[in-house]
Amino acid sequence: MASSEEDGTVEEKENNNKKRTKSALVTAWLTFYNIAMTAGWLVLAITMMRFYIQRGTHKGLYRTSDRYNFFIVLYPLGVAGELLTIYAALPFVRRSGMYSMRLPNKYNVSFDYYYCLIIVMLSYIPLFPQLYLHMLRQRRRVLHGEVIVEKDE
């Protein structure tokens, strides 16, 4: 009887250690996130103030700065966030069978959401570079006034 009580306390200690580890990780992430967000807003504020001081107006600020430059960093970060979120969801989707349809059923159709997510993740390999390079070409066209001729394929 005493050994089972000791086992219970050992398990509780292990659970508490795991919670502390998760808590430290969460705290570190939130600290990083808050610092990054503060730095981002600070850059925006400084950009807006410099623009206003130089030109005396806010008109034209949007066109010259947030959408043709920020995507260079934000677009890959967004894609990485999407892929990591899908990757983190895969074990749950597989265990639960979420949004999957197995045979036999009245529609006589089978669909496995787990494999659909994997295909979506793999589709980023050929599609992301094309989309990103397209955005870079659009940026160059708008900021430098270049005319870009798309090749017919």
From TrEMBL:
Its EC number is 4.2.1.134. It is a multi-pass membrane protein. GO terms for biological process: fatty acid elongation; sphingolipid biosynthetic process; very long-chain fatty acid biosynthetic process. Keywords: Endoplasmic reticulum, Fatty acid biosynthesis, Fatty acid metabolism, Lipid biosynthesis, Lipid metabolism, Lyase, Membrane, Transmembrane, Transmembrane helix. Pathway: Lipid metabolism; fatty acid biosynthesis. It catalyses: (3R)-hydroxyhexadecanoyl-CoA = (2E)-hexadecenoyl-CoA + H2O; a very-long-chain (3R)-3-hydroxyacyl-CoA = a very-long-chain (2E)-enoyl-CoA + H2O. InterPro entries: Tyr_Pase-like_PTPLA. It is found in: Endoplasmic reticulum membrane; Membrane. GO terms for cellular component: endoplasmic reticulum membrane. It holds the Pfam family PTPLA. The chain crosses the membrane at residues 26-47, 68-93, 113-133. Belongs to the very long-chain fatty acids dehydratase HACD family. PANTHER family: VERY-LONG-CHAIN (3R)-3-HYDROXYACYL-COA DEHYDRATASE, VERY-LONG-CHAIN (3R)-3-HYDROXYACYL-COA DEHYDRATASE 1. Catalyzes the third of the four reactions of the long-chain fatty acids elongation cycle. This endoplasmic reticulum-bound enzymatic process, allows the addition of two carbons to the chain of long- and very long-chain fatty acids/VLCFAs per cycle. This enzyme catalyzes the dehydration of the 3-hydroxyacyl-CoA intermediate into trans-2,3-enoyl-CoA, within each cycle of fatty acid elongation. Thereby, it participates to the production of VLCFAs of different chain lengths that are involved in multiple biological processes as precursors of membrane lipids and lipid mediators. This is Very-long-chain (3R)-3-hydroxyacyl-CoA dehydratase. It comes from Nothobranchius kadleci (African annual killifish).
